[in-house]
Write a sequence for this structure.
């Protein structure tokens, strides 16, 4: 199984007090936001995954939201054995096949989008659930 862990850098910019209020009072909405972000990552990594027979591209999946202490996590993963060589590159006989870096590129794109994604999500959330 191939696993990739990732963090959303944009969460650092999110007001911690507001995030704590939302997480405590509306945990399902908070989890739904995390699933939505993981869904965007899943869509992007599938789009960048090379298609030979389609198995690798179809195999990407999203796990469940897990909370450990104050940290939420969710996996975007594949169980296909050859995912890592496709991601990072591999030897094929005497030559080296460069990696496609589909997860790395997708994570980079998502991290760049997170501040605006979170800002939009908070605006929508506050419009539906006035906290103050």
């Amino acid at each position: 199984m191939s696993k990739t862990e990732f963090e959303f850098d944009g969460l650092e910019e999110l007001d911690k007090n507001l995030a704590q209020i939302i997480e405590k009072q509306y945990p399902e909405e908070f989890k739904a936001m995390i699933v939505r972000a993981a869904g965007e990552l899943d869509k992007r990594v599938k789009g960048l995954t090379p298609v030979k027979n389609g198995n690798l591209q179809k195999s990407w999946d999203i796990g469940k939201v897990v909370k450990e202490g104050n940290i939420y996590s969710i996996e975007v993963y594949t169980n296909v054995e050859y995912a890592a060589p496709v991601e990072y590159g591999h030897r094929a006989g005497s030559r080296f096949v460069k990696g496609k870096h589909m997860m790395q590129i997708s994570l980079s794109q998502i991290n760049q989008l997170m501040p605006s994604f979170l800002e939009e999500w908070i605006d929508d959330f506050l419009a539906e659930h006035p906290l103050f």
Notes: Residues 31 and 86 are 31 Å apart (CA to CA). The first strand starts at residue 61 and ends at 62.
